[in-house]
Amino acid sequence: MTASAGSLKAREWIECALNEVVKEVAKGTDGKPCIELKRIEGYEARVDKHLASTQFMTKDHKVTYCWPGKTADEAWRFSCVVSVLNAMHAAICANVTVTKRDIFYGEPELFGDQVIVDSLIDDIVHTCQVRREDLHVTASPKGLFVSPCANRGEVQSIASDSVFKTSPAWILVMEKEATFNSLHQSNFHHCHQAGPGLLVTGKGYPDIATRHFLRWCIGSTDHAPQIFGLFDFDAYGVDILKTYRIGSKASATELHRNLPEIKWLGIKSEDIIQLPSSAALMPLTQKDRRKAIKLIESAVLEQGGTVEELLDCREELQRMLMLNKKAEIQVLEDQLCRWAERKMLEAMRDST
After folding, report:
1. Could you tell me the EC number(s) of this protein (predicted)?
2. Cys staple from 24: which of 31, 109, 116, 174, with CB 3.0 to 4.6 Å?
3. Which of 105, 205, 236, 244 is labelled catalytic?
């Protein structure tokens, strides 16, 4: 299999960086081995006047790792960078894919924590300006999907190469695995009036593989299935929806996986106010309110106005703050299937 242009670009950058380190080490006490990476510090939307569309821009800063450094901590961080680069280089040269966990368990005593590896991978992806798959690194499977169109309708983990031959009539993405399990056990994906569909959960914030899988599902046929989402009525549910639609700071180099097409079914404020007084609604905490306000601010463009993909999110967050209430999707209890089907059919009719 021929290496991608991105893989060749990444390999060249890694080899150049490591060769410079070797040259500096060879100088002995006069050498100053250093590796410079770029780290994303911000992610914001701007309107491109020429393209008449919203563009997402990153702000970054340089992070320099040197050996032996001024402290033991600096020396350790340099060693971590070299170890991750070596693992990536070996994977690219061997044309194999490794997981982030594989890299961590290659030298667990060195890294100490998986988050160190994850952070360095994000920085290297951004520095090289390539996709994660170009570095032959992927996350361990996290998301789940089930469809009568694939594998006899059994629940499957979403890997970077998950595909199926028959396109579903629709896709329903859920924030939580509990919601996914409820609809799966009710055969929602088999029995829907609109035809057989695809149930997906990222189990919270979606990983790259889940977003890649959904992007592939939508773009792999001439008649793209409509995609819908079920998220909690709280700031974190809205933030997860936002991640599906426009990505996040951590995935700012993966804009081609964004899913602005997701139609948010709920639950929303209109559903909350129709619930009986006995429903398990919860008051917002100060942390909830701060999170909601931060999300509202992030939806505002520098030039004024609101990011188009986040208009409904901003409105619902404002209503949430006014109501001072939040609720999980499970508040619908045994009404979930009928409610979800009604909402999907209404959304389908509205889009025709």
Report:
1. 5.6.2.2
2. 31
3. 105
